[in-house]
Amino acid sequence: GENVEQHPSTLSVQEGDSAVIKCTYSDSASNYFPWYKQELGKGPQLIIDIRSNVGEKKDQRIAVTLNKTAKHFSLHITETQPEDSAVYFCAASKSGGYQKVTFGTGTKLQVIP
Amino acid sequence: DTAVSQTPKYLVTQMGNDKSIKCEQNLGHDTMYWYKQDSKKFLKIMFSYNNKELIINETVPNRFSPKSPDKAHLNLHINSLELGDSAVYFCASSQASLAATDTQYFGPGTRLTVL
């Protein structure tokens, strides 16, 4: 089955700096890569996703890149703000419905004011 | 309006007891899930139902029994609770169309503590 590795497990950045979280996946058939943000005491919430026919996707301060050949994808957050502090999960899945989403182990991001 | 709701939010119980967690979604989705998040924050799928039919059943002890009375509800019953069952349990839902994997919407979680 799919295996998703995520690094780093913790990340501290100064407010205004950029943060990068990296993930690798094992199943070359995976073609859907969502990123979820989990704030303290809440459930994960999708912040951005990318499909394998796209190499990069941006949404304001958040961007995700995908390298299918190397089977890795990354989340980039620019101009970090204290409210970006949370646990971030990458995930991988195959399209076609009813597929299991495999999550990475999570990265705890702390943005220091 | 709450999209995916779970009750209770906290559950503290003794080893050996039986307990249930309830989940409801008002998004009109066809697919619902149960995830377990351990103390290290690792998220692992347990079950998935589509239109009341079980479609994903991971390697979960048979003390865990999901039930879906209709496509808007997915409950989780746990028999003979053990210390290792302590975790946060998340319910989620998605449209899960055949075109592509869809966004999963998570509930707020139920923190289960087994003493």
Describe what is shown at a glance.
The complex is a heterodimer of chains A (113) and B (115). Chain A is mainly β. In chain A, 0% of the residues lie in helices and 54% in strands.
Structure description:
- The complex is a heterodimer of chains A (113) and B (115).
- With 113 residues, chain A is mostly beta strands.
- Helices cover 0% and strands 54% of the residues of chain A.
- In chain A, strand 7 (62-67) and strand 8 form a beta hairpin.
- By secondary structure, chain B is an all-beta fold.
- Chain B has no helices and eleven strands.
- In chain B, strands 2, 4, 5, 6, 9, 10 and 11 form a seven-stranded mixed beta sheet that branches. Chain B has a four-stranded antiparallel beta sheet with strand order 1-3-8-7, with no helix packed on it.
- In chain B, strand 4 (31-37) and strand 5 form a beta hairpin.
- The interface between A and B is medium-sized, with 27 and 28 residues.
**Multimerization state:** heterodimer
Biggest sheet layout of chain A? 6 strands, mixed
> What is the chain-wise order of helices and strands of chain A?
EEEEEEEEEEE
Which chains share the greatest interface?
A: A-B, 27 and 28 residues
Query: Per DSSP, what share of the residues of chain B sits in E-state strands of 2 or more residues?
Result: over 45%
Q: Total number of helical segments of chain B?
A: 0
Output mean pLDDT of chain B.
Answer: 91
Task: Count all strands of chain A and give the number.
Answer: 11
Order of helices and strands of chain B: EEEEEEEEEEE
Structural class of chain A: mainly beta
Q: Termini separation of chain A (Å)?
A: 41 Å
What's the tally of helices of chain A?
A: 0
Gross geometry of chain B: globular
Briefly note the structural class of the backbone of chain B: mainly beta
State Rg of chain B: 14 Å
Overall outline of chain A: globular
